[in-house]
Fold this sequence. Notes:
alpha/beta, two-stranded antiparallel ribbon, 10 helices, 10 strands, 30% helix, globular
Amino acid sequence: MKIETIVLNQERDVSLTAYIQPVGGEFGRIERRPAVLVIPGGGYHFCSDREAEPVAFAYLKAGYQAFILRYSLNEQAVWPNPLDDYEQAMALIRQSADAWHVAGERIAVVGFSAGGHLAACAATMSKNRPNAAILGYPVIDGACARDYLPSAPDVIEHVDGNTCPCFVFATRTDNLVPASNAIHLVDALYQKEVAFESHIYSNGHHGLSTGDTSIEGEAFCERYSRWVEDSIAWLGDVLGGVTPKGLTEPRFGAKVNGNRESTLNLDCTMAHLMASESATALLDAAMPGWSKGFPSAAAGTITLRDGLAYSGLDAGTIAQIEAKLNAIDNRKGEDQ
Length: 336
């Protein structure tokens, strides 16, 4: 393994440490690896070692390239300096993808506490966004963020349809960053139809990192440490994982949301289709009364594909409906 530390900003003591695993040769068909950019917490006053290398090593073991960002702190942390540090780090990783054997569009950011705030800002408002975000007991709400950094932005205000898929975890009894931060973020992601997975564990104090016994000796929910394994499996679903046969394709994709495709489609929700006059007319002709057969409360989550599974329509008719939907511009609701 190659380990390299790059100084990104000497004045602000910002650095990126790269842990680069080899490819090819003894590693068979692996030519590139997905990567994680780890952002430790520390209240914007220090970078926690507990949330740095121990986290990076967990993803290295799973076959990822790993990077650790030590960003601007204390008086140097006035916003947007930390976000600028992230932008510089992510740009360098993608620019160096060939040299570092990184799959440039399969990079996740992993952040904890205040580092989770920075990672969430990267996911929602950066110019060089990650492809996925893993957020551990993150600072999200504006009031909470400003307790640690007066100039810090409120993440919720910036969640939109372009936010990358997120894996969010926290503990109900967190004694420094209330779990409500994670809950509010998940609600915002749900409202904006962004893919996510979330775990709120029953008990555990702040700063548990991976929950490994070499890091944390105090008692906490025994299921907590499973977030590492779960997040790696989730990354495999949205970015593709690493196997002896090479880098696999994602099972679900980073953007699994028919409502955000360029044209209407079978994976649009019923509510989304009801808002289009063209789609409504098309479906009324094919299935009179189609919109009345679904619970109104679920219209925002039931897709047309799900609904058609119970319609009794044959495959040929469904294919015709799909073709006609695909001819309707999703942005304007008019035929192309």
